[in-house]
Amino acid sequence: MIELNDLLTRSGLDPTTVMVMRHRPAEKDLRAVLPWLAAERPAVYNAFQCNHSEVVEKALSKARYLVSFIGHEAGRAVFVGVYEVARYEVVSVDRFWALPGNAELRVLGISGPKDERDSFWFDLQPTLHLSDWKGKLVIDWTGIERSWWRWASRNRLPVRAVHDESLLVKAMPDWQTLTFEWSQLNLLPTSWRQALAQWRGIYYIFDRTSRLGYVGSASGGENLLGRWQNYASSGDGGNRLLRGRDPQGFVFSILQRLSPDMQVEDVVQIESTWKERLHSRTPNGLNDN
């Protein structure tokens, strides 16, 4: 059976110089979008793996390369890339949060350096090694699964499969089952964004904090995508009763998808029927009309 070390050796990499990581963040929001970041926001993905705990810092500082994977399913990992450990430096907490990508990761729940300490930041430079297999190569993550970083030369990690298509961005689910956290709106995969830009519809925002809901409609520029991007940037989308609330608690879904040819006044009328059916007008909900 072919193992990861076989692939590394054939690519000209010495496994004794390679650290392997299988990322599966504890933060729920980050874990949900990490494959999207790897596929379409590689700089943010790389920012995620540039800072670690003291134990991992010491080990990674001795490596020449990092081979990065994401937890795919139990005991499996999907390949993202090979990175050269170009250098590292000690950064303060303030400096850490100012580094590119970390502000976006903060929205997704990362807490930054433990105990507010100065920590190592690694300059990880993407290489072309095995790049054609990004998102396609799956290995068995043998042994204890929570042992998420390892030296390649000390482990046997069999190749499970090489898929024809990337596993990092899956096909968009049926619109009737879609739910998005507010923190995900700016990170949606391109193919998903293209679909939402074509759809007019009635949407629902549930505020977990107040346990109240808001019904809205999208029929303008870029339809659902354009409307939800407004929420992503402003938090409240210009709606009075959403203003001042923490958008981190907002969950978005689609109540009804409408024809792209439907007149705006007809969309508004359907929106009104949903407000009635879901009792979303104040004081029972967050609609003020």
Summarize the structure.
Helix content is 28%, strand content 27%. The protein has 289 residues and is an alpha+beta fold.
Fold and architecture overview:
There is one protein chain. The chain has 289 residues and is α+β, with helices and mostly antiparallel strands. The chain folds into two domains: 4-162, no CATH class; 175-278, GIY-YIG endonuclease. The protein is 28% helix and 27% strand. The strands form two sheets. Strands 1, 2, 3, 4, 5, 6 and 7 form a seven-stranded mixed sheet that branches. It has a four-stranded antiparallel sheet with strand order 8-11-9-10. Helix 2 (28-40) crosses helix 3 and helix 7 (190-198) packs across helix 8. The radius of gyration is 22 Å and the shape is elongated.
Question: What are its keywords?
Answer:
289 residues, four-stranded antiparallel sheet, seven-stranded mixed sheet, 2 domains, GIY-YIG endonuclease
Uncertain segments are none
Q: Give the biggest sheet.
A: 7 strands, mixed
Question: What integer is the average pLDDT?
Answer: 95
Oligomer: single chain
The figure for the number of domains is: 2
Task: Name the shape in a single word.
Answer: elongated
Total number of β-strand segments? 11
Write the layout of secondary structure elements.
Elements: H1 4-10, E1 18-23, H2 28-40, H3 42-48, H4 54-60, E2 65-73, E3 76-91, H5 93-98, H6 102-107, E4 119-126, E5 137-140, E6 149-151, E7 159-162, E8 179-181, H7 190-198, E9 200-207, E10 212-218, H8 223-234, E11 250-258, H9 264-278
Parallel strand pairs: 1-2
Antiparallel strand pairs: 1-6, 2-3, 3-4, 3-5, 5-7, 8-11, 9-10, 9-11
